[in-house]
Amino acid sequence: MSLLRALRLCLVARPRRCPRRGLGPGSDLPFSEGPLLLQSPEPWHSFHAGRWLSSSASSKELLMKLRRKTGYAFVNCKKALEACGGDLKKAESWLHKQAQKEGWSKAAKLHGRKTKEGLIGLLQEGNTTVLVEVNCETDFVSRNLKFQQLVQQVALGTMLHCQSLKDQLSSYSKGFLNSSELSELPAGPETEGFLKDQLALAIGKLGENMSLKRAAWVKVPAGFFVGSYVHGAMHSPSLHNLVLGKYGALVVCETSEQRADLEDLGRRLGQHVVGMAPLSVGSLDDEPGGEAETKMLSQPYLLDPSITLGQYVEPHGVSVVDFVRFECGEGEEAAEAE
Questions:
Q1: What is the CA radius of gyration of the chain?
Q2: Residue 148 pLDDT > 60
Q3: What is the rounded distance in angstroms from the CA atom of residue 130 to the CA atom of residue 221?
Q4: Which range scores top for mean pLDDT: 40-44, 101-105, 238-242, 275-279?
Q5: Could you tell me the CA-to-CA distances from 313 to 105, 196, 274, 280 in Å, in that order?
């Protein structure tokens, strides 16, 4: 057979058809050597759907709304709406409870894994300032927004706890919370449960072991101010006025007058505490020390080592009375060294 004749035969040949597959009239498909894809006559929303779910736009809108509000997968949102008869508020609560159960289960499995990474969080409101430390396993997770939101919740919980203490301040007050005490704090006015429940949720979502390490708070009356500094500071619009980093410091100072430059002075004092890691404040009468000096006012000033910190502070008419310094993971490293 000539090539020309063979081409003519190909052009007039009719396409072969596969047998009917029960898809209804007109469903014969041209034969193909590739995979045959069958489209189900049932719409996507009818699979395993409860009675509440129909093809109406309102049902789809409800599903989308729950997904946007909670961030959980569509399949979980769908299960929640089915279990709660389409009630959005109940479905949201159902999702959180299920996620919390899964989080507690995952937390139990991951318990014991080292949490040397994480973040320090600094929050200031009025005359109250708090520092918190929350740990995780990897730096990658510490950069995740969900982890940072957990740090925010811990800082807010600590702030609310501090503000609930009805003390009459004649001088400054300072307090610390350990891991167990932090875990039992309420999560906040708009969140159910305790901080330990929010921790379980975060572990369930991110799949790493985490811990609420510690918190410190300072309240000051008139005549005092708190200088603060966070090294490697990160700000996120969604986290409001929370500042995040790997090191943080609070410096309590007494002053005879409130001036505009005190905020900058407080930041510089905080930088010094982070960089030089003093163990005590000391006195202006102490002899100047060298690099190994542990008294804050006798240390070489971080930004100008030719003078001591005390010599830097004195002309400003400010007295340094106390400080707090947090370094992320410092306790874990010490325990590992031992």
A1: 31
A2: yes
A3: 15
A4: 275-279
A5: 52, 41, 17, 16
Secondary structure of residue 123 in the 3-state scheme: strand
Query: What is the model's pLDDT at position 258?
Result: 80
Query: DSSP letter at 279?
Result: S
Cβ–Cβ under 8 Å, residues 274 and 247:
yes
Answer whether residue 226 shows pLDDT above 90: yes
Range of weakest confidence among 66-80, 180-194, 197-211, 212-226: 66-80
Q: And the tokens for 217?
A: 């708070």
Q: Parallel, antiparallel, or unpaired: how do β-strands 243-245 and 247-255 relate?
A: unpaired
Q: How many residues does the chain have?
A: 338
In DSSP notation, 195-222 reads: HHHHHHHHHHHH-S-EEEEEEEEEE--T
Provide mean pLDDT across the span 24-45: 36
User: What amino acid occupies position 182?
Assistant: L
Lowest mean pLDDT among 48-57, 72-81, 115-124, 275-284: 48-57
Q: What's the pTM value of the predicted model, to 2 decimals?
A: 0.71
Extract the tokens encoding 201. Answer: 């949720």
Beta-strand pair 210-219/173-177: antiparallel
Contacts of 218 (CB under 8 A, 6+ apart): 128, 129, 130, 172, 173, 174, 226, 250, 252, 322, 324
Q: Which residues contact 302 (CB under 8 A, 6 or more apart)?
A: 271, 272, 275, 276, 309
Close Cβ partners of 150 (under 8 Å, ≥ 6 residues apart): 134, 198, 199, 202, 210
Q: Which two tokens stand for residue 261?
A: 């430059």
